[in-house]
Specification:
Among the domains are: 105 residues, no CATH class; 135 residues, no CATH class. It starts with 6 loop residues before the first strand and ends with a helix. It contains 13 helices and 18 strands. Strand 10 and strand 11 form a beta hairpin. The protein is α+β, with helices and mostly antiparallel strands. Helix 1 crosses helix 13, helix 4 packs antiparallel against helix 5 and helix 5 crosses helix 6. The protein binds flavin-adenine dinucleotide. Flavin-adenine dinucleotide binds next to strand 13, helix 12 and helix 13.
């Protein structure tokens, strides 16, 4: 849009990265999409990050056809907090379920308002420590950690406060939505815009090496052997993964930590609608005990916490007459375990986990346990991906969902003309990745300071 000659090189044959799409048995699936966060609340006005991203990318917001969630829930044992896209409803839930904590909750809101989460030199603070300090009943803090960690923490069992503030706003104060077409509703207009602007877009084109003179990146060597040169380079493949491409290991930062948190997700396609089973909610974040567990398990899977998503329970009028729907279940998983299995063992373990995940998820859905046999009879197919799949298609070290715990807000690397954007810049999720890319393009490429 600003006269630069741009080339995009992507290793995969489809666009979207961690939030891409695929087809199985004639059906289209989104890889990751549970929710587009930051659905603009009436009070957010022009400040809404999603509206800002659309404005800057010159994509009409209405063309995304987003529909809001119904109600979602955080469920810890026998305690539930429900939320939807009306923040007052969430406040009333906190007041009803944790009446003694309402003033502390207001204090948290004030603390978050006063904190500049988007600043480039934001301090690295533990959210768990802050929440433990604020609340007398630690359970409320643990419950707030659950959706925010699942939608964006690169650390185990915690989330840095800046990311928490961004995600709290994105999930609870703004809201969750989904386009009927799924992630392609966001990807198609982006690709169209890129093509219209005359950007060269090369798919199936992995970068093999980034050569440098120790100050500047001088050459991008492709897996095909082809060489590109560029005045400036933006890398969105992750900090660890970008450093892996350097011709000299001396350029690697000693600070960079590898992310460990990965997941297994199983998607069951079933006959009918979720409401046929009495399931009206959109997303359920669950944890079996009062202490939230968000870590790489020792075994292949941790069933004690996870996320359940019913994508057909967004308020889309087209969902009224559907003949089949999906149940998505996500649990923490161990990358090394999943990559150590031989093919046959891998398939067997996947099958075992699928049924365990389904049983656990049903126990968190209304009358789920007693409807198990009906649900099984209605199930048309199941597809499951593991940390091994995430690594295979996105090349993220350890199949890490949210990259490295070491973030570079400015996007700087040890090479002056190479910047990071997306997850490892500290902007999380679909909207975060778009905003991060825009920020780097604006601040480092178009208006360098
Ligand atoms: C299961 C799952 C569920 C999710 N659910 C949601 C959700 O509901 N809502 C939400 O907002 N976010 C969700 N996310 C997170 C979201 O997908 C990511 O935050 C976002 O995709 C990060 O974008 P990115 O551009 O930083 O990196 P990525 O999406 O990881 O993109 C990196 C790209 O770099 C390419 N690449 C890697 N190495 C090379 C190389 N050497 N040469 C060329 N190309 C290379 C990869 O192929 C990939 O396309 C989910 C993620 C997963 C995995």
């Amino acid at each position: 849009m600003f006269g630069k000659k741009v080339i995009i090189v992507e290793k995969h044959f489809v666009v979207g990265g961690l939030n891409s799409f695929f087809a199985r048995k004639g059906r289209k699936f989104d890889v990751g999409l549970h929710a587009v966060t930051n659905f603009p609340s009436p009070s957010s006005g022009k400040a809404s990050p999603l509206l800002r991203a659309c404005r800057q990318l010159r994509i009409p917001f209405d063309s995304l056809n987003l529909y809001p969630q119904s109600t979602s829930r955080i469920s810890f044992g026998n305690r539930d907090i429900r939320f939807n896209n009306d923040f007052d409803f969430f406040l009333s839930e906190i007041e009803t379920i944790f009446p003694k904590e309402i003033n502390n909750f207001q204090a948290l809101l004030e603390k978050m308002d006063a904190f500049d989460a988007y600043s480039v030199d934001v301090p690295d603070l533990s959210t768990r420590a802050i929440l433990n300090d604020i609340f007398s009943d630690p359970l409320l803090g643990e419950m707030l950690l659950c959706p925010t960690c699942y939608y964006g923490s690169a650390q185990e069992n915690d989330i840095d406060f800046a990311t928490f503030v961004m995600l709290f706003d994105a999930i609870f104060k703004q809201g969750l939505a989904r386009p009927n077409l799924g992630i392609r509703a966001l990807l198609d207009p982006l690709v169209k815009k890129i093509d219209e602007l005359g950007v060269t877009r090369l798919m199936n084109s992995g970068v093999q090496k980034i050569n440098s003179n120790h100050e500047l990146a001088t050459e991008i060597v492709m897996e095909s052997g082809e060489i590109f040169t560029a005045d400036q380079i933006i890398s969105t493949c992750g900090v660890v993964e970008t450093e892996e491409l350097f011709n000299s290991k001396e350029l690697n930062s000693t600070q960079t930590e590898e992310g460990k948190f990965s997941v297994i997700e199983t998607i069951s396609v079933f006959n009918g609608k979720p409401s046929d089973f009495g399931w009206d909610e959109t997303i359920v974040f669950f944890n079996d005990s009062e202490k939230f567990r968000y870590e790489q398990p020792e075994g292949s899977i941790d069933l004690s916490s996870g996320v359940i998503c019913l994508p057909e329970n967004y308020q889309d009028p087209q969902n009224v007459d559907i003949e089949e729907a999906r149940l998505r279940i996500t649990n923490p998983a161990n990358f090394s375990k999943w990559t150590s299995f031989k093919d046959e063992e891998y398939e067997q373990e996947k099958e075992k986990c699928e049924s365990q995940m389904r049983d656990k998820a049903l126990s968190y859905l209304p009358n789920g346990n007693i409807q198990k046999n009906d649900f099984l009879s209605a199930t048309l197919m199941t597809d499951t991906f593991t940390p091994r799949t995430i690594k295979k298609y996105t090349h993220h070290a350890n199949g890490a969902l949210y990259g490295s715990p070491t973030k570079s807000r400015t996007g700087s690397t040890s090479l002056k003309n190479l910047y990071l954007a997306g997850t490892d810049q500290g902007y999380i999720g679909i909207v975060g990745a778009m905003l991060g890319g825009i920020a780097v393009a604006n601040n480092r490429i178009l208006r360098p300071t």
